[in-house]
UniProtKB/TrEMBL annotation:
Compartment annotation: Cell inner membrane; Cell membrane
Source organism: Nocardioides bruguierae
Entries under CDD domains matching the protein: TM_PBP2 (cd06261)
Gene Ontology annotations for the cellular component aspect, listed alphabetically: plasma membrane
Membrane spanning residue stretches: 12-36, 73-97, 109-129, 149-170, 207-231, 251-272, 298-320, 364-382, 394-418, 430-452, 486-508, 531-552
Descriptive protein name: Iron ABC transporter permease
Amino acid sequence: MTPRSPTSPGAGLRRVAGLVALAALPTAVLVVFFVVPVAGMVSRGFVVDGPGGPSVDVGGVLEVLGRDRTRRVLWFTVWSAAAGTAVSVLLGLPAAYALHRLEFPGRRLLRAAVIVPFVLPTVVVGVAFRELLGESGPVVRWLGVELDGTATAIVLGLAFFNVSVVVRVVGAAWESLDPRPGEAAAVLGASPVRVLATVTWPQLRPAVVSAATVVFLFCATAFGVVLTLGGLRYSSVETEIYLLTTDLLDLQGAAALSLLQLVAVVALMLLVGRLRPAGDGRVSRVVARPRRPRRGDAAALVLTGLAVLLLAAPVAALVVGSLQGPDGWSLVHYRALTSTGEDAWTGSSAADALVTSLRTSIDATWMSLLLGGLVAVLLSRRSRTRGERRVRRLLDGLFMLPLGVSAVTLGFGFLITLDSDLLDLRDSPLLVPIAQALVALPLVVRTLLPVLAGIDDRQRQAAASLGAGAWRTFLTVDVPVAWRPLLACAGFAFAVSLGEFGATSFLARPDDPTLPVVIYRLLSRPGDETFGTALAASVVLAAVTAAVMLLVERLRVRNLGAW
């Protein structure tokens, strides 16, 4: 009797069953700590108690979506996200070209610095732009224009975050383009503009569209920037959910907006997946050699300078403002970081809050690495049957869902669902790290997945043929390739967790807040002294985050190519 083929129906079912069994643990974690809280939050708005018992109130949800304020919030969210995306792309494309295709002094340092704004805490960015654009800021003093509290300030803040996304995504694609077709076209008499339009752009367009779509997604779901810079005048879907939940206790309105946001973001994620260039998931090893700038590169270098100015000016204003005391240059605001003041407004000193943030971020990092690493391993294995491919696609989409749900929704969902007799974590110190780990999870998966998928499966087969078991094969083949990217993932997760504010603003205990929560509480109090302390705390938080990301960038430059 001949043995069954590896692709026979029985073998295919066994492989699918094995994949489902391995995915059971991370899926169960995601269901308990993501699906259940989000579903609980949404159900509180859709299900109402009536004389005949609980019932679904669809009419109430439609009434929420038909409100004039809801329409204004939706329009501002779409408009500001589109404007932020446009500015990010217009500044990011020239910077991607200059930093990835040209060679000049300081290029590596600039490439390292460009990634830092993306992971800076949103509260810090809001404080920095308020200091830059406020009535006593350099923009008012030098240009006579006050932009604090305007839509322009919000758009600039969104672009500040997302220029680096365009630079990284498009720059990596630009590096991998074969320069020979463009050189051949130039030899045949094509001008640089014609070479760009007919040779380079058709190859680069998928990466540009994909980057723009991701940036729009990030802009539409921004929370801290809009909350800090928009004040009471401007509100996005994210900040409106926060307002409806915390101030107005309108759970039905918050649930309706949460569901609308989830549907829109899932649609955008599906669009990004369709726009992703076709391939086998392996990392390209083709990297074009940078060349020295020419006269025709002047415009790209000038626009790159504008992008660097956009990224550097708010940070510089933040540092300078933190060093300004009542009588000139002073460290008085930094000395105030160790004091809680005369009341319990902040809950703890900024120094104690920093310790809490570091401790919480460490816990969130190992949680996200453990869960994300397991998911990346499962998704990166070769699918031999159609059933395996479908299961892996389903898992891939499932573990990307935290990108599409408001952190505010997740945080409040934790409070109203994780209080049962079976699982009551509302007073647990693990609650905040778990929420932050879920926020960082998609970044960990997306970073590790292409690295693991790029490993030639024949190496694993060779190790297995020599008698190595599954664990031995993993340790000898996968780990040597993935351990440095794993360290980079740890840095990413740590930085993201350090600055997370949306879910943490709900879950942090009043007497043990994280540093972003303390900064926001300081900003909520009037007075130059508390604002100065908020500036100093923001500088400290930004410095720690930047140090972590510069270390990550050092790992990336040496080992990960265009990661």
